[in-house]
Amino acid sequence: MQKTDKLLRAIIAVYGGIGAVIIFLMMLHITADVISKFVFNQPLPGTIQIVSQYYMVAAAFLPLAMVERLTGHISVEILYNVLPGTLRGILAMFSTALGAVVFAAMAWASWGEAVKKYTIGSFSYEQGVKIAIWPSYFILPAGTALLALVFLWRLIAYVMRAEDPSALTPGQAQASSEGVSID
């Protein structure tokens, strides 16, 4: 189990790193486009499509699993903290299972769409330049599939610790004696 956890953490770190690099590249690309447009009166062709189809999608979906692992997503805990420990444990397990199902479904559906776009060779024209956009459709299933795996792994951690439901809090599922520890 510890090897699986290490592998999952490594993949999450790679996705997060790629997301950070993508944001940096997007910043450079947009800056170069602005300079090119206002200094040389010649904007870089394809900037809008590349930013919207590649950079933004990658920046939004690749780091999702890292944000979830670090419990950085928005959560509302107005009533959750005053509930009895057993009910909190049940709710934590339910929401984690629901997240796994929802994001697995998103990964499945977006994979089908990506394959369709690949099959037809989807592209876009901007300033007379043909830009292949079909590869960007594979970013969404990659990000959502990894997020589904994080939820599934966290659910396994919750289930392996089911004897103490009051210890189940979102983002802190750890069953270190069992070798499961996604946090």
From TrEMBL:
<feature type="transmembrane region" description="Helical">
    <location>
        <begin position="131"/>
        <end position="153"/>
    </location>
</feature>
<dbReference type="GO" id="GO:0022857">
    <property type="term" value="F:transmembrane transporter activity"/>
</dbReference>
<keyword id="KW-0813">Transport</keyword>
<comment type="subunit">
    <text>The complex comprises the extracytoplasmic solute receptor protein and the two transmembrane proteins.</text>
</comment>
<feature type="transmembrane region" description="Helical">
    <location>
        <begin position="90"/>
        <end position="111"/>
    </location>
</feature>
<dbReference type="GO" id="GO:0005886">
    <property type="term" value="C:plasma membrane"/>
</dbReference>
<feature type="transmembrane region" description="Helical">
    <location>
        <begin position="12"/>
        <end position="32"/>
    </location>
</feature>
<dbReference type="InterPro" id="IPR007387">
    <property type="entry name" value="TRAP_DctQ"/>
</dbReference>
<feature type="transmembrane region" description="Helical">
    <location>
        <begin position="52"/>
        <end position="70"/>
    </location>
</feature>
<protein>
    <recommendedName>
        <fullName>TRAP transporter small permease protein</fullName>
    </recommendedName>
</protein>
<keyword id="KW-0472">Membrane</keyword>
<keyword id="KW-0997">Cell inner membrane</keyword>
<keyword id="KW-0812">Transmembrane</keyword>
<dbReference type="GO" id="GO:0015740">
    <property type="term" value="P:C4-dicarboxylate transport"/>
</dbReference>
<comment type="similarity">
    <text>Belongs to the TRAP transporter small permease family.</text>
</comment>
<feature type="domain" description="Tripartite ATP-independent periplasmic transporters DctQ component">
    <location>
        <begin position="26"/>
        <end position="156"/>
    </location>
</feature>
<dbReference type="Pfam" id="PF04290">
    <property type="entry name" value="DctQ"/>
</dbReference>
<dbReference type="InterPro" id="IPR055348">
    <property type="entry name" value="DctQ"/>
</dbReference>
<keyword id="KW-1133">Transmembrane helix</keyword>
<comment type="function">
    <text>Part of the tripartite ATP-independent periplasmic (TRAP) transport system.</text>
</comment>
<keyword id="KW-1003">Cell membrane</keyword>
